[in-house]
Amino acid sequence: MTHRHAQRLSRRTTLGLLFAAAAGVMAAGMPVAAQAQAKGELQVQVRIGYQKYGTLTLLKGRGTLEKRLAEQGVGVKWTEFPAGPVLLEGLNVGSIDFGTVGEAPPIFAQAAGANLVYVGNEPASPASEAIVVPKGSGLRTLADLKGKKIALNKGSNVHYLLLKALEKAGVAYADIQPVFLPPADARAAFERGSVDAWAIWDPFLAAAEKQLGARVLADGKGLVANYQFYLASRTYAEKNPEILRIVLDEVAKVDDWGRNNPDEVATILSAQTGLGKDVVALAASRYAYGVKPVSVDVIASQQRVADAFSSLKLIPKPIVVKDALLPARQLATSTK
């Protein structure tokens, strides 16, 4: 068996696991386009929320999903968001159906009552986020963050990174001054010196390193997993499992392609994000490719994230992460 053939088999197995349980929601054997016609609709649609990172940006740039779904009478609408928390707000209010975020946003969204479900994840990518300081900063260790102003996007993946970094350094969360800003505003504050450090993710992290000479105080290695999650509204997932299966199958294909074509990845990301190729190449070098079903191990990791935020009263109530799975879902037994 060739390596490429093995990859195809692996992808089919993975995506079969993702939606085999949910597929029973659809009329047996009825294709997506036939469902739309039966409802008197000219076209159904999947509205995708994405950010300036990850496989969805590559998928949008390559245009393969539109071609695949057009054959089924399904349209695709893309909406860019500056960060995960606002993307999931969009999912919760019904302006998008599907999107990708880091570890923390689903925790905050679930705690706020959002009716979302996890439908897949990319492997851990701890080097894709970091706490950075200006190149001339006197801060040298995580312990030096005590009493300092740290810019971050509240409820984003780096919020958890900051918690774990402070914990490792023996600094209480109450002993730093979090400054909650979205990435663009945080960068402006970082540049003018009104904050001492910035917790941020790629490609904004790579841009700070390349353009500002920002120095990494600590990235996620040894602290956090930093999974990239794919989520959908529960209603959409229950009604359209076949569409989501196709979306995730195309994500898996882009993962396979991206892993083996780093220069072309950088070209597409540069065009999609407006960032220099050197910046996005650095960010892409830290990607982790390979969409999988959300396993028992990954859900356990997410539960630890949720418990950490709950213990600090950063979310309004404790949550059970596995409640945000489709009821009939069959989880893989490991991340392998």
Notes on the protein architecture:
Helices cover 45% and strands 16% of the residues. By secondary structure, the protein is of the alpha/beta class. It is globular. 46% of the residues are buried. The model is unreliable at 2-6, 8-17, 19-31, 36-42 and 329-336 (pLDDT under 50).
Strand and helix map with partners:
Blueprint: H1 3-19, H2 32-38, E1 44-50, H3 54-62, H4 64-70, E2 74-80, H5 84-93, E3 98-101, H6 104-111, E4 116-122, E5 129-133, E6 149-152, H7 157-169, E7 177-180, H8 183-192, E8 197-201, H9 204-212, E9 215-219, E10 228-233, H10 234-239, H11 241-260, H12 262-273, H13 277-284, H14 296-311
Parallel strand pairs: 1-2, 1-3, 6-7, 6-8
Antiparallel strand pairs: 3-10, 4-10, 5-8, 5-9
Helix pairs in contact: 1-11, 3-11, 3-12, 4-11, 5-6, 9-13, 12-13
List keywords for this structure.
336 residues; alpha/beta; five-stranded mixed beta sheet; 10 strands; disordered N terminus; disordered C terminus
